[in-house]
Structures are given as C-alpha cells and as structure tokens.
Design a protein that fits this description.
By secondary structure, this protein is an alpha/beta fold. The protein has one domain: Alpha-Beta Complex (Spore Coat Polysaccharide Biosynthesis Protein SpsA, Chain A), CATH 3.90.550. Helices cover 30% and strands 19% of the residues. The radius of gyration is 19 Å and the shape is globular.
Amino acid sequence: MKKQTETKGTSSLIKEQLKQVDEYFKEFNSEVLRQPKEKEHPVEIAFAISLKSKTVSRNWVGVQANLAKTLKSIFGNTDQNFRILVAGHEKPDLEELQRKCVTWLSVDFAPPVDSGRFSSDKREKRRVIGAYLREKGYCGYFMPLDADDWIHYRFIEFIRLHPISDAYILNKGVMVNVSLKEAWLRSRFYRGCGSSAVFYFSKDDFPLSSKKEDVQGTPFAVVDQDHKKVAEHMEKIHRGHRMIDFPLVTWVLGHGDNNSVLKGKKDNGISADDYHAIGEELEDWFYDYFKIT
C-alpha cells in the first residue's frame, strides 16, 4: 500500500536538508569567503551533457523542455564560473542554447537503434566533449550531467569554495517524480544517478580524440565507467575524492523519456515507497532552490 506524501504544514526533511546548505555558507570560514574566488580557486566547472537523439525519444518536445530546465538550473547559480557543452545528433531550437556559455557539439555517428545502446551512446557523446576540451586546452572541473537533472543554485559556489579535489562525489541527493509531484531524499546518490560526480582534469587528462582507444589509459576513462563504482575507479588511478553529504542535485524521473525507464529498469510510477523513503509533495519552495521556473 502506498504511503501518503507529506502535506503542507508537515515538516519537510528535504527542506531541512536544503536549509542546512544555507547555514553551511553562513558558518563557512569568513576569511575564506572574503578571498577573491578567482585567486583562490580559478578553475571553472565544465558541465558535459549528452543529449539523446530525436529518433529514439518518445517525446522530442518534452526532451527539449527537460534540457531547458537543466540549463536554467545551471544559469541560476550564484557562481557563474562555468561552461556547458551539449553533444547530440539534432540541435534543439532552444533560446537557452544561444548563450555564450553554452557550446553545441554535433556528432556524426549513428544514433542507437534500441534502448540497449543508450548508455554507450551517452558515453560516446561524453568522449566527444572530452576531446573537444583537450583541443581547447581546458583545465578544470568536469561534470557529466544528464539532460533532465537539476543542480542547486549554489552548487558551483560550493565546489569552488573548497580546495581543489581530484573528485567530488555526491553521497546524498533528491529524487523527483514529476508526474506524481513527489520528491524524496536518497542516500548513496551516486549509485543511482549519473549526475553525481565532479572530476578535476588537467589538459593532458582529456583524450586526444573521442575514440575509445584514445580514452583508455587516460584519467578521463573514469567518466566512461560505471558511476556506481566511481570511488573505486578513482582509487585505481591513484586519485582521491571527497564525498558531499548535501542534496545539491535532483534526479528527475517520471517524465516518460528517462533512459532507465526506456531500458525497463524503472517505470514512470517510481516513488519514495520503492526506496523505503518518505515522499513529499513538490511545492514552489523546492523549485526555488533549483531555479528552473
């Protein structure tokens, strides 16, 4: 039997967690906060988005709308030291893609013919982005981000306020079913969601080309591997990581075009019950933290 979601007037576990993020910034060492960020942590974050092909989407209009929300969640960040790279087959007609901080990369390989190829298609597009950054001499943070997930409005600020780390891994996050208008907290977030790690790469860590053989043997190979074992992958290449225990990313489900749904791993009725979690009703205050409206 399904549990009822939290109603208005009921204490929200998610809101409590998000308020802790605000409190964290208030209590953060004032000396650090007064330092010019560019001098302390000059690196930016490159968000790498692999967009599925129109030929394998159930609703291309919906896919484009989801991408627009993901981009808006980045645009709304307090720290604007970022760039966004989107790789795909068909370029959406979106105003958000016209911003200077966004680079569209067209791919020339064939789109997947079935759901079994969705993951490899995503990785191949990610390798295209990596090779592009190598060509441009980029050095900084790299975050694979699904084209329907949302990031917290202080996410970039949070990463850049801290000392540079080989990787930041999200141990906690929020899951949302937009059709059910339900949200819930998830522990070990990185095991379920691919939008859950930020890697630091030098120019030479990126691959010379998008060919799989050019990626193998480079540090960039960690983003080509199973995100469930990201900590183990980092250890194998003798690099460290730091865990983040704030819910700074939202994994969005229930819109009908999730790869995990199309592959049969999840269904559109997925809810907090499936994770033995407390479901909460999606309200306006939640969207404010992710700046997507």
